[in-house]
């Protein structure tokens, strides 16, 4: 496997590397020649495939998971303050019988498709305003709030509908929910 350089922001780099690895696993023949790019994030040398990677994770969820990680690993300088902050994200810390943190319960409203729809809509606007032209445009969405297996097909059809007014569209939308892998 060739070395691929990724974005500069730590979270962006993680999501881009993650998407690259998932796609290599899914179909190495199709994605073997992807190279790091900007606008879109990856591109094949012959411009056959342009791939944009995006994260659709609510900021409250990101903050709650970061706080839980800090609390549970013992790296919190003020566990009491971090627990209070975690509670303000509407998450709830779960502890075992010895009061050791073992997880968080996240609010059900995070399992919403609206954030994914707005993310796709924003990326469609960007795709149509200065991205390198490719024969096929693909969008890899990393999310932890996706619709689940039961309703994924209907949600993906709604995303296709969002594309109709745009001259350039995503030919493929990969909705990646890591907990389903």
Short descriptors:
181 residues, five-stranded mixed β-sheet, two-stranded antiparallel sheet, 6 helices, elongated, disordered N terminus
Walk me through what this model shows.
The protein has 181 residues and is an alpha/beta fold. The protein has six helices and seven strands. It has helices at residues 10-26, 28-31, 59-72, 79-88, 114-127, 152-163; strands at residues 35-36, 42-43, 49-55, 92-95, 101-105, 136-142, 172-176. A hairpin with a 5-residue loop joins strand 2 (42-43) and strand 3 (49-55). Helix 3 (59-72) packs antiparallel against helix 4 and helix 5 (114-127) packs parallel to helix 6. The two termini are 22 Å apart.
Helix-residue proportion: 25-40%
Helical stretch tally: 6
Query: Structural class of the secondary elements?
Result: alpha/beta
Low-confidence residue ranges: 1-8
Mean pLDDT level? 83
In this structure, how is the largest beta sheet organized?
Answer: 5 strands, mixed
- Strands of the widest sheet, in order across it, are 1-2-3-6-7
Strand content: 15-25%
End-to-end C-alpha gap? 22 Å
In one word, what is the shape?
elongated
Q: List the secondary-structure elements in sequence, H or E.
A: HHEEEHHEEHEHE
Radius of gyration: 19 Å
Give a count of the beta strands, DSSP E runs of length 2 or more: 7
Topology, pairings included?
Elements: H1 10-26, H2 28-31, E1 35-36, E2 42-43, E3 49-55, H3 59-72, H4 79-88, E4 92-95, E5 101-105, H5 114-127, E6 136-142, H6 152-163, E7 172-176
């Amino acid at each position: 496997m060739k070395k691929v350089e990724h974005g500069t922001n730590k979270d962006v780099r993680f999501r881009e590397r993650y998407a690259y690895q998932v796609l290599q696993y899914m179909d190495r023949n199709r994605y073997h020649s992807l190279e790091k790019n900007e606008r879109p994030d990856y591109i094949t040398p012959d411009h056959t495939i342009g791939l944009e990677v995006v994260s659709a994770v609510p900021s409250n969820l990101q903050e709650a998971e970061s706080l839980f990680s800090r609390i549970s690993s013992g790296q919190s300088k003020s566990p009491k303050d971090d627990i209070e902050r975690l509670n303000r994200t509407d998450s709830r810390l779960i502890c075992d019988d010895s009061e050791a943190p073992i997880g968080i319960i996240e609010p059900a409203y995070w399992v919403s498709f609206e954030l994914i729809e707005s993310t796709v809509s924003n990326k469609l606007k960007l795709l149509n305003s200065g991205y390198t032209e490719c024969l096929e445009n693909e969008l890899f969405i990393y999310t932890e709030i996706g619709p689940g297996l039961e309703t994924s097909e209907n949600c993906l059809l709604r995303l296709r509908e969002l594309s109709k007014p745009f001259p350039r569209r995503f030919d493929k939308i990969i909705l990646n929910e890591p907990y389903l892998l």
